[in-house]
Design goal:
Distance between the termini: 67 Å
Strand order of the largest sheet: 2-1-3
CATH class: Few Secondary Structures
Oligomer: single chain
Number of domains: 1
Strand content: 15-25%
Largest sheet: 3 strands, mixed
Shape: elongated
Structural class: alpha+beta
CATH architecture: Irregular
Helix content: 25-40%
Order of helices and strands: EEEHH
CATH topology: Rhinovirus 14, subunit 4
Number of strands: 3
């Protein structure tokens, strides 16, 4: 590596809003994040379908009509 062109590389701490702390190395000493693998719905299995104004049900009715029409 060339001298004096790379940023300093430090031990870093990544802090999530849920309280999870990860130790790693980075050019920043501390990184704050809103969501991590400990609290993300995809990784925790607590994923929910949010039905805003009946959109899911409206979609299902529309698909049922299409299937009925094609039969």
């Amino acid at each position: 590596m060339k001298k004096k062109i790379h940023p300093p590389y430090h031990d870093a701490v990544i802090r999530c809003s849920c309280g999870n702390v990860v130790h790693t190395r980075s050019t920043k000493k501390e990184i704050k994040i809103e969501i991590c693998s400990n609290c993300h719905p995809f990784f925790t299995g607590k994923q929910k379908i949010i039905d805003t104004a009946g959109r899911v049900e409206k979609y299902r009715r529309r698909e049922a009509k299409k299937r009925k029409k094609n039969e």
